[in-house]
From TrEMBL:
Signal peptide: 1-16
Official protein name in the record: Peptidase M14 domain-containing protein
This protein's UniProt keywords: Signal
Record-level Gene Ontology MF annotations: metallocarboxypeptidase activity; zinc ion binding
Domain of life of the source: Bacteria
SMART domains noted in UniProt: Zn_pept
Domain Peptidase M14 intervals: 56-432
SUPFAM superfamilies (UniProt xref): Class I glutamine amidotransferase-like (SSF52317), Zn-dependent exopeptidases (SSF53187)
GO biological process: proteolysis
Pfam families: Peptidase_M14
Length: 871
């Protein structure tokens, strides 16, 4: 696609940003839509112009406005596309000409046909279809709820598109269907904007101090591999339903970032994203930068930010369907909506003129009005550009990109998930992820042959030559961070904007084999619901049910059994039953009706097999404390803590967040989990009561007294579990005899979000159920030299050989032989620390087993299984 300078279009656009917005009462019938007089201008509806310093409209009012516009205008439709995590509506708008909206089904069908590489279209047929159809342009604001300036700009844009009938607007409406997502996180709009308005006129800080997505906060833009949150699933569904050619995501960056940043994107570029999808977004960014220069809006930068096309956690699945990801980032102001100035009076942002920043910003302040102005320039320019080239966008992004997904690309033809994996729940979750992403999975009904290898019936096959095949490669291949990610041959390696790997099999604990030439007589298409366990048998009175410890889904089993008051025992040694050897950590429960019914239910959920035996095995065991009560120290606005809440809610754990007042008496907790990111300062100092109102009392500091109370609680018999950087907090709290021995200097040692090989002792209670060797998630995490021979070291990094499993690591030999998971006695109590970041965004699912073990085992008591269950 050519980069067309939209001079004519932009002349109108630039003017419109200030003067051409039509308001009811303006006598401009020749350019105003018939509906214009019934649609109030935003200023009239909200009581202030959009983007007024210090003024933010509540999301409910913005929804009301959009509903009103949709009622009055035949160019705008309003729909609720789903329900959010906290139960709010997730609204969308469709904006196009009345004629296009009337034939929307036909447009979407045509676009689907263009994008389907199996539709058998020739190039000329595809060209002809592209000429008949209209592309969808996806326009999204406020995924990040503290980035409040893009939505008011969007309100102005919708008002203009629904009321003005200039040549400029008509071109957009005739040639695009704009799918508008006013907020990709409506919950956050309520939390953030309502809080801002409620604190007006107080001495409180105006920015909401906690996670603006209930579980994941700002990480809601890092959920495009696992799709854990409802909002991530809604967006993915919309992308599949509407097949956009552009995904225009509007964001804000820090106060001293460029005034606006647009593509071209930075290195590194992964191997699996199509060149058209990338180059078209880069071209669009260049057009917006050009438009800003023409309009005299300074401080726009390109090129040196957001190398996001390495790991699918930020860019998602859209580019694999042909959508060009067009991201703009506008500098933020102070306290969401108040003017920002540097304390020294220097202009914010880059000050040196360069090819990346043609026209540095020279004013001392930056305001919400300016954010809105820049956002409108970006939207008006990009919409106009795509509308003028609509046929090319359809042909190139939908037809050409997707056609290539059926061609060999040098990667493996097939990934095989051999039957008989140690964790059936992980298999089920992998298939569920593929279901959401739109990846086709087949199950072999007979033996699979690939080269000299054979795989049994029941193995899964995922072909890379399918519509989402490039994404399949993205998340299944072992990542080797590119040495070419440099500005020049001698320049330093550019570190990724995000993590260095997204390898799903290693995260989930699955063995997946790449293969060419896989041959199998019969297969069937499967989805997650087809991954099931054999029916649960019935054990006779005096017998027992057994569940092997090799699945992270075991947490579901334990939590559900505890909820239903079924005693849960875990064998502390290997034993035999029914001709099978069971590993340490195997769950043993009595043959009661409650146990049976619970296990039937949880086995359906997890696909975990449950064995019924006629006798209780005579084996030493830990009996978990009934109703084990877990406390979570999470910290305000601490994303790892939010992810832990999501995991705990998903697994159904009996947990509560530990609040400031709880430190006076922690005795009701059996076990306390400290989230990564929780430091001594967060616990001791916490949120300042002068700056945050009573509702955040829970996150206030507990002082040295509270800190000591936590230490005493452990020493008096409590069980503390600390993950990632919180391992250091636990060390400091309890004076643990461990020393972080990783080099702090990033030139010497750097492993920023990577998978590192580790060893596990399956006989150690903390690592029951883990394989002897498996990669762990490592984010420049602590790794320990253990100074107490009595400490139970359950996981270490190998003393020799390759440590890097997938991603990037430099100087990883420094980790050799260091400890990862250690359990230590502390007075009457216990602490288990895991230095590696094994709860990171819930991704390292396989390693969740360690957290689960540590949480439940600490408060457990030693019993003999047969004797105990004979009682
Ligand atoms: Zn953002």
């Amino acid at each position: 696609m050519s980069v067309k300078r939209a001079l004519t279009g932009f002349a109108v656009t630039a003017l419109a940003a200030t003067a051409l917005v039509i308001t009811p009462g303006d006598n401009q019938a020749s350019t105003a839509d018939a509906a214009a007089e019934d649609i109030p201008a935003p200023e009239e509806f909200f009581g202030f112009p959009m983007g007024t310093t210090g003024k933010l409209a509540p999301f409910e009012e913005i929804k009301d406005y959009f509903e009103l516009v949709a009622e009055e205008s035949d160019s705008v439709e309003y729909e609720v596309a789903g329900t959010t995590t906290l139960g709010h509506e997730y609204p969308i708008l469709r904006v196009s000409s009345a004629e296009n909206l009337a034939r929307l089904d036909e447009i979407l069908e045509t676009n689907e046909k263009l994008a389907d590489p199996r539709s058998g279209l020739s190039e000329s047929q595809a060209r002809a279809l592209a000429e008949q159809s209209v592309p969808v342009y996806y326009l999204e604001a406020t995924l990040h709820s503290s980035e409040v300036g893009n939505l008011p700009a969007l309100v102005d844009v919708i008002h203009r598109l629904s009321t003005e009938r200039s040549e400029y607007v008509q071109n957009i409406l005739d040639n695009l269907v704009i799918l508008v997502v006013p907020s990709a996180n409506p919950d956050g709009q309520h939390l953030m904007i309502d809080y801002f308005n409620e604190t007006a006129g107080t001495d409180y800080a105006r920015t909401y101090p906690d996670l603006y997505h209930n579980y994941v906060g700002h990480d809601n833009n890092r959920d495009w591999i696992f799709f854990t949150q409802e909002e991530s699933r809604i967006r993915t569904r919309l992308e599949q339903q509407y097949r956009p050619v552009v995904l225009h995501f509007m964001h804000q960056a820090g106060t001293n970032s460029p005034r606006m940043w647009v593509p071209p994107f930075d290195e590194p570029l992964g191997p699996n994203v199509d060149s058209i999808a990338i180059s078209a977004s880069n071209a669009l960014g260049a057009e917006v930068a050009n438009a800003a220069a023409e309009a005299g809006l300074p401080g726009v930068s390109t090129d040196d930010a957001y190398g996001i096309f390495w790991n699918a956690d930020v860019f998602g699945t859209g580019p694999h369907r042909g959508a060009s990801l067009f991201l703009h980032e506008i500098a933020s102001v102070r306290d969401l909506a108040l003017p920002f100035s540097n304390p020294d009076g220097t202009p914010p942002g880059a000050r040196d003129r360069s090819m990346r920043t043609f026209d540095p910003y020279t004013e001392a302040t930056w305001t919400l009005e300016q954010i809105v102005e820049y956002a409108k320039l970006s939207m008006y320019t990009a919409l106009d550009s795509v509308a003028k080239d609509a046929d090319d966008w359809l042909y190139n992004n939908l037809y050409q990109v997707n056609q290539k997904s059926m061609e060999p690309d040098g990667g493996p033809e097939t990934y095989i998930v051999p039957a008989g994996q140690r964790d059936p729940f992980a298999v089920k979750q992998l298939v569920e992820i593929f279901d959401i992403a739109g990846v086709e999975v087949e199950r072999a009904l007979s033996t699979v042959r690939a080269g000299r290898q054979t795989y049994p019936a029941g193995s899964l096959l995922i072909h890379t030559q399918q519509p989402m095949g490039s994404w399949v490669e993205q998340v299944l291949e072992v990542d080797q961070y590119p040495d070419a990610a440099r500005k020049c041959a001698d320049c330093p390696l550019i570190m990724p904007y995000s993590e260095t790997t997204d390898n799903l099999p290693m995260l989930l604990g699955l063995t997946v084999q790449p293969a060419d030439d896989a041959r199998v007589a019969r297969t069937e298409r499967v989805s997650a619901e087809d991954i099931t366990a054999p029916a649960v048998g019935t054990a006779p009175d005096g017998g027992a049910y057994l569940v092997e410890p090799t699945s992270y889904g075991l947490t579901h089993v334990i939590a559900r059994l505890q909820e239903n008051d079924v005693p849960v025992l875990r064998a502390t040694e290997a034993f035999q039953a029914g001709g099978t050897t069971y590993d340490p950590g195997t769950v043993i429960v009595p043959a009661t009706t409650a146990a049976h019914d619970t296990l039937v239910e949880v086995s359906e959920l997890t696909a975990l097999p449950v064995a019924a035996t006629p006798t209780v095995p005579a084996v030493a065991a830990l009996e978990l404390k009934a109703d084990t009560t877990i406390g979570l120290i999470r910290g305000a606005n601490n994303m790892p803590g939010g992810w832990l809440m999501w995991l705990a809610d998903t697994y159904g754990l009996n947990y509560e967040v530990v609040e400031a007042d709880d430190y006076a008496d922690l005795s009701r907790f059996d076990t306390i989990l400290v989230a990564p990111g929780v430091t001594k300062d967060r616990i001791v100092t916490g949120l300042n009561p002068a700056l945050y109102p009573e509702e955040f009392h829970w996150a206030r500091g507990v002082g040295e007294v509270g800190w000591q109370a936590l230490a005493s609680w452990v020493g008096d018999g409590g069980n503390l579990v600390a993950v990632g950087t919180a391992a250091e907090t636990a060390r400091e709290l309890l004076g643990l005899p461990i020393t972080n021995a990783t080099p702090g200097d990033r030139d010497t040692f750097n492993a920023p979000g990577t998978l590192i090989n580790a060893q596990f002792d399956p006989a150690a209670p903390a690592t029951w159920g883990m394989p002897a060797q498996w990669p762990v998630w490592f984010y420049n995490s602590p790794a320990y030299r253990v100074d107490d021979p009595a400490a139970a070291v359950a996981s270490t990094y190998p003393g020799s050989g390759e440590l890097l499993a997938s991603g990037y690591a430099h100087g990883q030999a420094a980790l050799q032989g260091l400890a990862n998971v250690v359990t230590l006695d502390v007075g009457e109590g216990q602490a288990t620390v895991a230095g590696a970041d094994i709860t990171f965004r819930s991704w390292p699912r396989a390693a969740w087993t360690i957290v689960s073990n540590a949480l439940y085992n600490g408060p457990a008591t030693t019993v003999e299984a047969a004797a105990r269950l004979a009682q």
